[in-house]
Amino acid sequence: MEKAFQYKILREHKLICQIYHGKIELNDVKAQMQKITSDPDFSPDLHLLTDLRDCELNLTPAEVTEYVNFLKLKLIHFKPSPHNEAFITSDSYTESLSILYSIQLKSNDIKSDRFDTLDEAIEHVANNRELISDIRKKFLEFKKEFSDLQD
């Protein structure tokens, strides 16, 4: 399984979508966040929807802590902004790491959680319930584009 990761910012929905594929290491996650925060459309108040179902997170609990510290330093220059983060997982180890991340990141401004399905995750990050179907459609289009790149 070849490693790949991609993101897309949907400004109209105040949302960052990201997908990981293959065996993902700490440096990959850091590189992805570096790209996202350098994007001119990035803002710390954007919600985050991350699909981890097609990847193997090759991270230790200590590396999750290292990533949380990296993230806090990366975002220190931004005013704290309330937002939600949703992680879609399909295995117990990735689920455990996402829960550990949520606990370590704990902040009144960030509500982070993990989900089994795309629909549950979208409900967590949608800032307007009427837009859920549009977000779902755009995420699935993004995932298809990403999958096409992998073929």
Descriptive overview:
With 151 residues, this protein is an alpha/beta fold. Helices cover 45% and strands 26% of the residues. The chain has a 5-stranded mixed sheet, with helices on both faces. Helix 1 links the parallel strand 2 (15-24) and strand 3 (47-57). Helix 2 (61-74) crosses helix 3. The mean pLDDT is 88.
Strand order of the largest sheet: 1-2-3-4-5
Helical segment tally? 5
Termini Cα gap? 11 Å
Overall radius of gyration: 14 Å
* Mean pLDDT over the residues: 88
Summarize the helix and strand pattern as letters. EEHEHEHEHH
**Helix-strand makeup class:** alpha/beta
Overall shape: it is globular
Strand content: 25-35%
- Which range best describes the helical content: under 10%, 10-25%, 25-40%, 40-55%, 55-70% or over 70%? 40-55%
How is this fold's topology laid out?
Elements lengths: L3 E7 L4 E10 L1 H13 L8 E11 L3 H14 L8 E6 L3 H14 L4 E6 L2 H8 L6 H19 L1
Parallel strand pairs: 2-3, 3-4, 4-5
Antiparallel strand pairs: 1-2
Helix pairs in contact: 1-2, 2-3
What is the gist of this entry?
This protein has 151 residues and is α/β, with parallel strands linked by helices. The protein contains 5 helices and 5 strands.
Any descriptors?
single chain; 151 residues; alpha/beta; globular
